[in-house]
Amino acid sequence: MENDFVTFDRDRMEITVHPEGGRDLVINKDSVDISYFSGGPGGQNVNRNLKGVQLIFRIPDTYRRESQKTQQLVTRVMGKRSLHHNLQAAFEQLTHKVRQYFYVPPVRRKTKKPKRADEKRLKNKKIKSLKKQDRGKVQY
Fold first, then answer.
1. Which residue of 10, 58, 83, 115 is 20 to 30 Å from 26, comparing CA positions?
2. Residue 103 pLDDT grade (very low, low, confident, very high; cuts 50, 70, 90)
């Protein structure tokens, strides 16, 4: 996207959304519910250490979109071996989900089909029909 309205600061783990015609929305560790769970790679410690991360971000009422039914965005990550890397990956996933949630597609302007395109299409149809008419039974 050329006009990126979502920025992610990896060091501070902070997502900033710049919606059109509104105030910026800042999502950081304090505004997200973080829970930890066990699972994922890690050998024998897989069930003893909490290395999986789940983030739940509840979208404030002022930023909710009427076209979307979603009221919260949830991400779960347990692919890495360390808690810190899983937390970073979860925030990156949340960034993508926030970008999808707040994306507004541009308004499509209808264009008129050129007259030459219709003429070309009809000409090709006529050529094909003549070709098929020539495919008759062979007479001896």
1. 83
2. confident
Domain assignment of residue 56, given as a range: 6-102
Instruction: Say if 92 falls within a structural domain.
Output: yes
Is the residue at 84 inside a domain? Answer: yes
Q: Name the pLDDT band for 2 (thresholds 50, 70, 90).
A: very low
Q: Which of 41-45, 68-72, 108-112 has the lowest mean pLDDT?
A: 41-45
The closest alpha carbon to 33, from 66, 76, 63, belongs to 76
Output the CA torsion sign for 94, 97, 101, 105.
Answer: positive
Choose among 93, 61, 49, 50: nearest CA to 75. Answer: 93
Say how many domains are in the chain: 1
- Indicate which CATH number applies to the domain containing 76: 3.30.160
- pLDDT tens string 17-60: 888 777 888 998 899 999 999 876 667 777 788 888 999 999 98
Whether residue 78 lies inside any domain: the answer is yes
Instruction: Say how far apart CA 59 and CA 65 lie, in whole Å.
Output: 9
Whether residue 97 is contained in a domain is answered as: yes
Q: Tell me if residue 77 falls in helix, strand or coil.
A: strand
